[in-house]
Amino acid sequence: MAETFSDNSSDSAAEISGTNNTATVAFKPQSGLQRLDIIGTSPRALDVVNLLDSHVVLLPGGRGPSGHPLITFPSIGSLREKIGREDYKKVLHYLASITSPECQEIGFTVIIDTRGSSYNAIKPILKTLEEGKIPNLKINHVYLTKPDTFWQKQRTLLAKGKYRFEAEMLSLEGLAKVVDLSQLPSDLNGNLQYNHQVWLEMRLAVEDCLLKANDLLDSYEDVKDQMEDLVTWLDDWKWGAHAQPENHGVEYLKDNLQRHIEIRKRIRGETVEQLQNLVHNVLQRIKSDPFLSSNPEFHFSVNQLTKAIHAIQKAYGHVCDSWQQRKLQLDQGIQLRMFEADCQKMFDWMFQSREEFLINYFDIGNSHVSSKELQEHHKCFSLSSMDMYVTVNRLLSLAGRLLDSRHFASSSIRQVALHLEKGWKEFASLLDLRTQVLGLSVTFHQKAEQYVNSVPIWSPQCDDGTANVPGAVNPNEGLLENAIHQHQSLYELMCLNYTEVHSTSKKLLYQLDHLVQLANQSRIDASNEKQTYPRPKPWPLSTNPAEDYSKGASHVLAVIHQILNHHRQLEQKWSVKKVKLHQKLALRLFQDDVKQVLDWLENHGEVFLRKNVGIGRNLAKAKAYQRSHQHFECVAQNTFTNAEKLLAAAEELAQTGECSPNEIYAVARQLDQHVGRFINRVAQRRHVLDLAVLFYTHLAEVTAWLESLRRHLLEDLNFSTGTPSLEDTQNILEQMALRKDSTTEGCLNTLAEGTSLIEQLSAVGQTAENDTTGSFSVIETSMKGLNQLNEEVLAFWKDQNIKLEMYIQWKIWERDAVEVSSQLEMWSQELSTAQNGPEAPPTGVTGDVMGDVARTESLLQHHNDSLNHMQNAVFNILQRGQEILHMLETSNPDAQLLQGSESRTQSLLEALHKSRMDLDDIAELRRASLELDVQIVHLQVEANQVMSWIRNGEAMLLASLSLPNNLAEAEQLRGEHGHFQVAIERTHASANQCLRKAETLLHTTNGGLNNPQRQTLSDVIDGVTRKWQNLVQCAEERHKLVTASLNFYKTAEQVCSVLDSLEREYRREEDFCGSANASVNHVIDENVKSDVMPQLIHRHQEQKENFLKACTLARRTAETFLKYSSRSLQFYSLKGEASYRGPEQRVKGILEKLLSQENRVLEVWTGRKKRLDQCSNFSAFIRSVRQVLDWLATSGESYLSLHPIRDIKSIPKDVAQEWLEDNKKFREEAKEIRDKVKLLLQLADTLLSSGNNVHTQAISHWADNVDLKYKDFSCRIDQLKLQLEARLGITLARSPTDPKPELPIPSQPQPPPQNQQPDDGKRKSARRKE
């Protein structure tokens, strides 16, 4: 019954999952309302209506030359002076905003009518346009009409391009040339129709329509927001799926639905119709007025109004659709909450039912009766769950309908439905699995009890006591086979029962394990997903699933182990009995088979061999015997195979131990011996028959060959048709030899086969005496006849072979003699033609000289070789002719073959001797001519070798033309050039030797030379001389290049090194005056001497002159190097190649580097010079400081020690008067020190203000020290004076206008800031001075 539940619920699941592709209502659909930004972001005409009504700025609708809209500032008299820049900005902003975006992008052309206005009235307009801060206003060009009184100053400003835009002042006539009159209004003498009052009224009407459209859209937006507020629970549902239904329950949703119905009353279509009528009237008025319909700006306004109407209509439709959509969402929300409540109740029921199921789900019973009772109880529980399946099916159907209606919560409904269906399927699967487990338990207990009850019956049947067949002491094969069949049937019955019990137990344990796992499987999907409502509870689980499984499986395993023990005992008994039965049957069968094999060998095999002992008297009879024996072997092969199988079976039977091994082995040995002897006799008989057939066959073939050879010898030597040719005779001789060899070999082989056959017959016991078939006599007679025939044929062949060989020798000599004679004549003609005919012209110095050498030497060598070869050939032919002539005279050959051979031989010998004498004379003349050609050609070879060395030298010069990039390459180039000079010295000696040889040949053999040879010698002399002179010129140029490059790189490297050392030396910070510790120890160093600094400055100036001269020298050597480089490249035509541009760039780079180093050295030299000057000034400053401090320490302190202040009150007044007079005198003397201190502080201030002074700290320290000591001294002097005046009673009131004290305290110098640097002008001035 539970299976029925799960099958029906799967249809609902398919229905739910199939709605995944349907569209659902969105949670928060977009409003689709778009506010018109025409009014909200731009000024309105109502805001600037007063300015527009005053004709301050106009947008008449005209276009400039490039399509730019025209903005005009008409002449309005004195009213223009009252308008400010802010008013202009507002009006221009408004006019720019009412044009189309395309016009705003390309910009505007402004025309200002300046007639009747002053420049002060026009200036705010230009300033407003110049600022460029007006949105959507891009000024391209400004035209100003000429005023009545021309502003000369303002025209100059405009001409200088004072403004960002192009400004131009034109008369009205000039303006008409720039802008078409049809685009200008009437106040600028144009023809453009423009009514400003109508334009302003229509602008106000258009903007009123647009404002109302925006207001209506705002109201629709408010309605949309209110509707959105009614469905805010959708957001809570979407983002908080775990929320409980009490937050947004059914009553809450019904309230929202009622409020949503009331909102529908606010969405009315009458307002839209009224606005459409208003816009329609405005559009009709614009289209009916020619001025408005032709104005481009009102074209853009028409488009705006049309878009506004379309936006209103679209918003109205969208709000209506949104209302319907929200109503649908509220209805679906109510349905969703009701569906979720029902599903939650079903989840609770399944949880309780599962708890009840888990009480005894693992109990499967201990017997057949108990398992049957559990099965009936579970059936009742499954039937009781059938009513709840109807409820589940109803909920799944409801979920399917909600999904088909495209519910907004389709995913949630589908999820809940899937959870419900999955929960029901899991519960139903548990019921089904429990049903299967109990069914398998009933079957298992029934089969197990049946097997245990059958064991006492099967055990006696498997006992060994039943091995002997009842009623037979020695059973036959039939009884044994019947007992084995019955024994096998008993085993199959036992195995069948055991297999049923075992397979049922395995199925039961598997299903029980599956049931325990499924029942204790947690809801992974419910625990991992978002918590939703309704939320299914986690399934109740067992506390110990392993223990539950062991409780049910332990009894099954115990029963299986008991049955397994019984089955193993029965199987062991059955196997012992089976083995004994099969062994007895095998022994019986083995004995019968051995008997059959021995009977066949005795009755058939031995009879056949005794009957057939002969081999036949001829070939046909021997083949008949052979075929009969082959048929017998085929028949006997089956017996041999059976014997082998029986021997193998005997070994197995002996090893089993059931039968007597000695008995079995005795029978096997007897069988093996009989079969082995019989096989050997059959093989021997087969071999004898094969030899007989082979002998008779070869005897017939060899006899036929000998008769054929004799017949062919007679036919080949029959020359009645004429004298045969040499080739035919040689072919006949070769064929005769081949036939003789093959026939002789066949005859010998046949005789050997006959001898072997006789030996084999003797081996089998047959002799000539006991041979009744006559085989021995036939074989011996055949061998004697064959041997006699072979000797006769060989004797006849030897006689004929001697005659043919003599004839062949004479024919070969005749052929060779004729051939040599013809060759002598032909060679004599060739030598005569070569000696008397024109010679091939020499190749000269530039031709293929090596080919001429080889050709000329080969001609001479060929001539000598040919002469020797021909002489040897003639000598051999003459000698062989004499031998053949002697052989013909001494022998008596057959007249038919050698008729007339002696006379023919004598005539050929005489002709050959005469031809040889003529050839010797002609060959000697030819040899002398060829030797002279060889000498000339060798001279050409030597000349070419010299010229090749010269070309190699030129190639070396060209290959080594790697203009050096550094000193190492220059030195390497000098070394290569030195090697080259050594090489050309050897070439010079070879060239002189070649020229001397040519002149010697030209003068010594002048009478024996022909014109081509003489011309060749002259060409050799001229070519070698010209090439050598060219090489010498190239070598001189290269030497200059090497020297120049070496000088340049050496000079550049040395100069760069000197500059680097000077730069490092000049950059090193030094205290030239030796007063670095003055500021630290607060003591003036005595080493500061004034006479050292002038010497340092003078030496520094000399270093500058020296390195400048070195730089100049490096530039001169670079010019020389580049000059020779250019000449070398021009000589080899490599001036424009890219591979040779590197050195020039390298030289330029070195010069630039040298220049940069020179500049850096000059810069650091200047800095060092400045530091030297600072040290010189510091030395002078220190000397002055020492003088002041010495005076203060000596004269000043001595005066103050002689006039102590502490003693003034105790001295008499006359002494005080005297001290006062001394004070006045001393103050007069101290004025010089005061001036010196003042000058010293001014000098310190000057030194500190110069900046970058290494003595800044020392100067500041000593200036402060002098200042402090002098101030202290001055104060003490003033105090002394005041005390003296007070002692004398002199009271003088000092007025503000009184002069300062005679010893004023000089101001302390202020050091310059750390980062202060002299400006560029001072630095350049200082460098110019230096």
Task: Please provide a brief summary of the model.
Pfam families: Spectrin, Spectrin_6. By secondary structure, the protein is mainly alpha-helical.
Question: Helix and strand layout, with pairings?
Answer:
Layout: H1 2-17, H2 37-40, H3 49-53, E1 70-73, H4 85-97, H5 101-106, E2 108-112, H6 119-131, E3 139-145, H7 152-159, E4 166-170, H8 172-178, H9 196-230, H10 233-239, H11 250-263, H12 270-288, H13 290-294, H14 296-357, H15 368-384, H16 386-404, H17 410-461, H18 477-519, H19 524-528, H20 545-611, H21 619-656, H22 661-716, H23 726-763, H24 775-836, H25 849-890, H26 901-959, H27 967-1004, H28 1011-1067, H29 1078-1081, H30 1092-1131, H31 1142-1202, H32 1213-1249, H33 1256-1288, H34 1320-1329
Parallel strand pairs: 1-2, 2-3, 3-4
Protein name: Triple functional domain protein
Organism: Daphnia magna
Keywords: Coiled coil, Guanine-nucleotide releasing factor
